[in-house]
Structure formats: C-alpha cells, structure tokens
Specification:
This protein is mainly α. It has 1 helix and no strands. About 50% of the residues lie in helices and about 0% in strands.
C-alpha cells in the first residue's frame, strides 16, 4: 500500500511539473510574439519616475 501511494504521488507530481513548465513556455512564447509599440505601458510624460501625482502642485494658490 505504501509503495502504491508513492507511485501515485510521483505520477501526479510529474504531471504537475510538466504542465507548469508547459505553461511557462507557452506564456513566454506568446509574450515574445506580442511585443510592439502598442504594448508599451510606460508613461512618456512621467520624466521623474514618481508617477502622476508629482505633476500637479500640492499648494493651493490664494485668490
């Protein structure tokens, strides 16, 4: 009974590892084929790298 449990566990683990590696390879391949100018997610106006909040002044001007 104990050896059968190890065999079943080993088979399940091997299947899990196979599909994990297959998923990593498939996503890596699809990511490489989809690269293009429309896939750029960086903000061209954000020169300081601090995000959008640094573009606007925090002090309110008095009228």
């Amino acid at each position: 009974m104990s050896a059968q449990m190890y065999i079943v566990g080993g088979v399940l683990f091997a299947i899990y590892i196979y599909f994990t590696i297959w998923n990593i390879m498939r996503n890596n391949r699809s990511q490489n084929t989809n690269d293009g100018p429309e896939q750029s997610h960086h903000d061209t106006v954000d020169m300081d790298g601090m995000g959008n909040f640094s573009r606007f002044p925090t002090d309110k001007q008095k009228k």
